[in-house]
């Protein structure tokens, strides 16, 4: 094991990364709160400031993925479409199978300059999570309760507000509505059978209402749907704890750009269109599993330095007071205080976290609970 790998596997490093994320995140949440008066004076300026502040938080997860773990994210797409990515608004339809799928999504957002403004239709529970949830509130993320009677009004209202958003954005939709597990797959295929729809092997049956309401409300604002299918090489089962301990994964993302005009307007037609899209996505996954490749060429999208620089700056800012505190603690000379501090630092160390299947958390260390939501 090299020095780098040895360092990355240290629990202390993972604790420090988490400390930087939480301390700087809360500080940024506070700065976001301070932008409230700006909303009344100049809404567009407030939104732009919040995009930058949001970037400071979400790019830390990109830095950990791209630079700390060294995970490679490869893009398969039509090179002719490449210049459009990041220069127009898009609705991203992504499969929801991996614990770190959103981190790979964020990494691609960064590579195309839309990380700060990235949007998602997310379950309401996440709005209350400090740092990420509070950041999302200021970024006008769309929350849903997964109760259509309530969502049809609130989701539409939130989407309408994005019509005059001052920056290009990608709006992410996990149409499956929940992360893939074997049990959920079995139930959803029973629903497919009842509805007379073809069975899917690698996806859950998509929920169509969120997609339809998004298309309906963002027509004229968004140029295209980016149909995106993600998988990992060599049957890797990536996890956040793996990323934190510096494990390198290999993500492959296949993106097709579908102009919004080609998507039907009526609810039933739009739903049928989405079901057909998921049947095609299922075919792409099958091809990937059989051949290790998606169709089409690979386009180079190198990781960017921005997230690393941002991460180093925030680390310096929040680690300095922590270092000063520890020095003053050590110089106090109280053996009891020093022993208590050491016990606190290492007390959270449990046996390694092992997911027994993709996406299922079965034995988590304290830090893993952060993403169990
Ligand atoms: C170039 C590079 C390109 C791309 C880069 C990639 C990405 C980057 C982009 C952006 C990144 C930004 C941010 C990412 C950061 C973090 C995000 C992380 C995680 C978020 C995870 C979530 O929160 S997912 C959960 C929330 N989202 C959703 O639920 C969306 C999908 N759901 C819907 O659309 C729903 O319809 C709804 C929520 C709007 C309403 O739900 P409800 O349940 O009330 O209604 P439904 O219509 O869905 O349900 C009733 C119908 O469903 C049928 N049914 C019943 N059981 C099932 C079943 N098991 N499976 C399928 N269908 C079922 C039932 O029969 C009803 O059918 P009807 O025919 O009667 O309608
Ligand atoms: C404390 C550790 C910090 C270390 C720094 C690393 C940065 C990591 C950033 C973490 C950001 C967390 C974003 C929350 C995303 C949650 C994804 C999620 O919630 O997926 C599950 C849902 O789809 C389905 O939920 P269910 O249908 O099971 O209900």
From TrEMBL:
The chain crosses the membrane at residues 16-40, 308-330. Keywords: Acyltransferase, Endoplasmic reticulum, Lipid biosynthesis, Lipid metabolism, Membrane, Phospholipid biosynthesis, Phospholipid metabolism, Transferase, Transmembrane, Transmembrane helix. SMART domains: PlsC. GO terms for molecular function: 1-acylglycerol-3-phosphate O-acyltransferase activity. It comes from the Eukaryota. It is an enzyme of class 2 (transferase). Pfam families: Acyltransf_C, Acyltransferase. Belongs to the 1-acyl-sn-glycerol-3-phosphate acyltransferase family. This is 1-acyl-sn-glycerol-3-phosphate acyltransferase delta. The gene is LOC115559616.
């Amino acid at each position: 094991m090299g020095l780098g790998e040895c360092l990355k596997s240290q629990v202390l490093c993972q604790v420090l990364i988490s400390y930087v994320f939480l301390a700087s995140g809360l500080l940024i949440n506070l700065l976001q709160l301070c932008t409230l008066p700006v909303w009344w004076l100049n809404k567009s300026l407030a939104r732009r400031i919040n995009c930058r502040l949001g970037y400071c938080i979400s790019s830390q997860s990109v830095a950990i993925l791209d630079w700390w773990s060294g995970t490679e994210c490869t893009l398969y797409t039509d090179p002719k479409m490449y210049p459009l990515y990041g220069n127009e608004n898009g609705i991203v339809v992504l499969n929801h199978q991996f614990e770190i799928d959103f981190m790979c999504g964020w990494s691609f957002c960064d590579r195309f300059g839309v990380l700060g403004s990235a949007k998602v239709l997310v379950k309401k529970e996440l709005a209350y999570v400090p740092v990420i949830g509070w950041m999302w509130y200021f970024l006008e993320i769309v929350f849903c309760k997964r109760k259509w009677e309530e969502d049809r009004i609130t989701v539409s209202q939130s989407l309408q507000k994005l019509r005059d958003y001052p920056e290009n954005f990608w709006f992410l939709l996990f149409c499956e509505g929940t992360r893939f597990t074997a049990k959920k797959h079995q139930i959803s295929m029973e629903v497919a059978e009842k509805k007379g729809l073809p069975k899917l092997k690698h996806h859950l049956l998509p929920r169509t209402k969120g997609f339809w309401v998004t298309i309906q409300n963002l027509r004229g604002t968004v140029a295209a749907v980016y149909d995106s299918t993600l998988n990992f090489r060599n049957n890797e089962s990536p996890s956040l704890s793996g990323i934190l301990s510096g494990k390198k994964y290999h993500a492959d993302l296949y993106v097709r750009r579908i102009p919004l005009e080609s998507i039907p307007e009526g609810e039933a037609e739009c739903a049928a269109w989405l079901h057909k899209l998921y049947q095609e996505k299922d075919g792409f996954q099958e091809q990937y599993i059989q051949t290790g490749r998606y169709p089409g060429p690979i386009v180079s999208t190198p990781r960017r330095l921005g997230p690393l620089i941002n991460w180093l700056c925030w680390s310096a800012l929040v680690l300095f007071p922590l270092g000063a505190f520890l020095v003053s603690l050590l110089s106090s000379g109280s053996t009891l205080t020093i022993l208590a501090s050491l016990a606190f630092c290492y007390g959270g160390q449990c046996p390694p976290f092992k997911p027994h299947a993709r996406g299922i958390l079965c034995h988590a260390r304290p830090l893993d609970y952060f993403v169990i939501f």
